[in-house]
Amino acid sequence: MAAVEPKPPGTSAAQRLARGCWSAFWDYETPKVVVVKDRPLGVVYRAVQLLILLYFVWYVFIVQKSYQDRETGPESSVITKVKGISVSEHKVWDVEEYVKPPEGGSVFSIITRIEVTSSQTLGTCPESIRVSNATCDSDKDCTVGELDMLGNGMHTGRCVPYYYGPSKTCEVSAWCPVEDGASVSQFLGKMAPNFTILIKNSIHYPKFRFSKGNIASRKDNYLKHCTFDELSDLYCPIFKLGFIVQAAGENFTELAHKGGVIGVIINWDCDLDLSASKCNPKYSFRRLDPKHVPASSGYNFRFAKYYSVNGTTSRTLIKAYGIRIDVIVHGQAGKFSLIPTIINLATALTSIGVGSFLCDWILLTFMNKNKVYSHKKFDKVCTPPRQATASWPVTLALVLGQAPPPTPHHPSGRPPSPPPGLGS
Q: How does DSSP assign 42-54, residue by residue?
């Protein structure tokens, strides 16, 4: 007869642990209501509930309107048009000359001051004294073919007198004369505060299929005789340049002399549960460039106008200072939706339970009768199984060797007799 193969040690204990865990998995837990007659604790409980309720009712639902489905960042188009005439010391300036670029986009510049270097031709001339290592005492200080990326041209190897004063600089092959050697400043900003700027803006929220523009739907010549006013002419988006600069909190003369960037912000916050007439644009103005940083204060750019004289190509170099306008459009729209309403209501009802959690923690931690409360709150009810099995905590203790083995069940209700051979 074959010998019975011994079972590996611990196999029965592991099986008991598995059966105990499987049995505990199907246990059901239900809350037990315990009424605690304690006035201070009741005040804390109701105060926490009230604060949570006020937060959800006032802030979440009224202020944030969390019952709405929302869409941010509307699709937007901007068209601009500037009108006005200005004069400088030498000429009259119209829109075609002082607005760059002329296409009428959301970003454009209005030139208010220029430094003009006229009649530049390709040749040789002294380098600008502002360029580092440009000053010299003799030709030995100038290297032939040297090219400074911050300069105006290539060195010829000669040291020549500067345009004015006793200084000398290295000669360069470039557009001559260089800018700071012969530039003349002209101020165009005398009439600039009266320039008018039309900002035509239309927005679209595709999720809600909602579109609107910032110009009144009128068939008369309304735009020819109106200017923007927040109260009386909200849908006349014609702004004077002086008004925009003043609304941004800037001094016009200073800004026109050094240049700067002004943002025109159009905000479309729309509650689409209301009528379309309640969805109106809100305008704000502020300076965008770093005003108080000396290294990069102001705004300027360069461009040139080319022409030919007796077959020789010449140009007029213009360094322009101006006011750049950036039109920025943003906003959000919201409309009632059942899904966010249900989600936020469920969150509110769940959050009210924070009061119970806080009061339970106070009872179990700080109050004198915390053991009594713990005994009243936590009960364990066991239904008699068909065959007695150890609960999974007892089984776990058996496996770890932390508890005595269970007493076997005897049909007669009496403990089993000891095996023969053991003491009487």
A: HHHHHHHHHHHHH
Distance linking the first and last C-alpha atoms of the chain: 36
Strands 107-126 and 99-100: antiparallel
CA–CA separation, 107 vs 94, rounded Å?
19
Can you say whether the dihedral through the CA atoms of 190, 192, 193, 195 is positive or negative? positive
pLDDT tens-place string over residues 339-397: 999 999 999 888 888 877 787 777 777 766 666 666 666 666 665 555 545 555 555 45
As a whole number of angstroms, the distance between CA 358 and CA 348 comes to 16
Nearest CA among 421, 379, 396 for reference residue 13: 396
pLDDT mean over 312-321: 92
Global pTM value? 0.72
Residue 243's nearest CA partner among 280, 288, 197 is: 197
- Dist. CA 165–CA 88, nearest whole Å: 29
* Residue 118 CB burial class (10 angstroms; 0-12, 13-18, ≥19): middle
What mean pLDDT is predicted for residues 238-243? 95
d(CA 195, CA 182): 31
Look at residue 111 and give its three-state secondary structure.
Answer: strand
The one-letter code for the residue type at 27 is D
CA 77 remoteness from chain centre: 21
* Strand partners for 147: 154
Residue 44 has pLDDT above 60, yes or no: yes
- Residue 262 tokens, joined: 């002004």
CA–CA dist 44, 50 (Å, integer): 10
18, 115, 164, 286, 314 from 184: Cα distances, Å: 95, 5, 15, 31, 17
Q: Is 84 left (phi over 0), alpha (psi -120 to 50) or beta?
A: left
Task: In whole angstroms, give the CA distance from residue 408 to residue 100.
Answer: 99
Secondary element (H or E) of residue 417: none
Strand pairing report for 99-100 and 154-161 = unpaired
Beta bridge partners of residue 263, listed in sequence order: 286, 326
Query: Would residue 81 be called left, alpha or beta, if left means φ above 0 and alpha means ψ between -120 and 50 degrees?
Result: beta
Q: Rounded to 10 degrees, what is the CA torsion of 236, 237, 242, 248?
A: 120
Q: Which two tokens stand for residue 424?
A: 């009487």
Distance CA 409, CA 407 (A): 6
Q: Which H or E run contains 33?
A: none
| Radius of gyration over every alpha carbon of the chain, rounded to an integer in angstroms | 43
Structural domains in the chain plus CATH codes? 11-17+24-61+340-394 (no CATH), 75-117+183-334 (2.60.490.10), 128-177 (no CATH)
